[in-house]
Amino acid sequence: MTKRIFRSILTVSLAVLLACLVLTVGVLHSYFSQRVRQELASRTGYIAQGVEREGADYFTDLTADCHITWMTAQGLVLYDSRPDTSATEHKEDREEIRQTLLAGKGKTSWWYADSTSEKTLCYARRLGDGTVLRVSDTQHSVWTLVRQSMQSVIFVMLMAFVLALVLGRRVARQIVRPINRIDLNDPGRSEVYEELTPLLSRIRSQSQLIQQQLQELKRRQEEFEAITENMSEGLLVIDTQTRVLSCNSAALRLLGAKEFERSVDTVYALNRESDFRRCVEEALSGRRSEKMISRQDDSRQIIASPVEQDGQTVGAVLVILDVTEREQREGLRREFTANVSHELKTPLTAISGTAEILENGLVKPEDIPHFAGNIRRETARMIDLVNDIIKLSRLDEGGPNGAWENVDLYSLAENVLNQVRPAAEPKQLTLTLRGGTALARGVPQILEEIVYNLCDNAVAYNRPGGSVTVTVEDTAGGARVTVADTGIGIPREAQSRVFERFYRVDKSRSGGGTGLGLSIVKHGAAYLGAAVKLESIPGKGSAFTVTFPKQNESTAADQKT
After folding, report:
1. DSSP characters for 318-340?
2. Cβ(119)–Cβ(142) under 8 Å?
3. Beta strand 298-309 with 289-295: parallel, antiparallel or unpaired?
4. Residue 112 · residue 44 · CB < 8 Å
5. pLDDT per residue over 454-489, tens digit each?
6. Does domain 401-558 bear CATH number 1.20.1250.20?
7. Rounded-to-integer distance, Cα 207 and Cα 226, Å
8. Nearest CA to 440 among 482, 401, 476, 405?
9. What's the rounded Cα separation, in Å, for the pair 243 and 468?
10. CATH code of domain 2-148
11. For the domain bounded by 231-319, which CATH number is listed?
């Protein structure tokens, strides 16, 4: 803006200077032309008086720098101060001569000499005897005057240009300085030209509108960030160049990425797996895509949808879901189904084979009780398995519908030991109950299942002549039951898996169980709010400890009834 103002001032200054120069030259030329005319008229007057008084003798001693011609009315030249030019002129044809003869008074006229570009002024006067006296003189033309004064004119123009240059720059800066000092945030407080008041009013209105829009955008951005940052799902918004436009922390966490520079890195910096890249490429090509990314113990589902505007794909939105638990549950369900099928198939095969032998009459009468006993044992095994599955299903669905009561764990453990004693006697196991009264609040049926399965496992996986010790305590942390055995123990790498359904450390020494006992213990304890702890040394035995919450901590669990 300063340059434009400067150029405008400089142009106007030079234009005014040139106009003034032309006007001055024109005025001076007009002034001097008028003076020459007046001088010619005056000179013609006193020469005419001399000629009328003395006649031709007047020209004898006359010395003049002008051109004097004396002629008759017919054009005959009586005297010519420059005879060399009279021969080439037809003086009777001159306009001033004709006008003088007709009007009887002086008349000026002029013409330009082609060779010298000089202007010739003439004044003619009719004398008393009818003759005509003409006096002419030359005057320089305007261009001649300009050429003669060209050096002075150039100097003046140069000085004027320098002065206009300096003043124009200074004036331009002074004009622009108040405008540059305008506070756009509050233009009303700026002291500036009155002519800019309407503009400043519009700027103030626009500034207020922009501030309102910025505040609204900031509010919406904060709401969007608050929503996305509190999402458990990852959210990514990218453009067609795969640059990340928006990203929440859940996306970084789920993709296992660290902080990155969004203006530099592409979405591939978050994850470089082929499935992720293929999902992004399909979304940017206009197709919705879903891919699964699995790494070690976690699984991520990527859902990418294209973003279209005016029929063109301008980006994509990626949602990252943590489906680890779902996949694990699905895996457990498949494993559970396979295990159930396997566990049911074994007794069914034995029953079917025994029944087929009996049906074909291949069994001696004295062996029938033996085969019938096999059928009974396998059937009981199936019944136990189905019962355990039903128990687990009930625990998964929220537990049985029994009422919550205060149960004495010592009496409960005593009853359970009596139940497992028949299975312990063939191994000559020693069953011991220690401790004293300890009340735990819960569903009696679930409490009994927990203690029974722990004791049953302690008997089943014990060595002959070993021992099973049940300790019941009332501690500051709550009632506690510990079932310790001197059995085969559990390797450290298998201790985290023994609570899985149908998992056995050594299937060849399973003891004939269903493989669901510890799963029932885990789910039952979780339902009652209890904690299960395992300590085991391979070859020396294992100890399972179940700690129940104190009475005042079981109120929330009591509401489940």
Report:
1. EEEEE-HHHHHHHHHHHHHHHHH
2. no
3. antiparallel
4. no
5. 898 889 888 899 999 999 998 888 899 999 999 888
6. no
7. 28
8. 405
9. 65
10. 3.30.450.20
11. 3.30.450.20
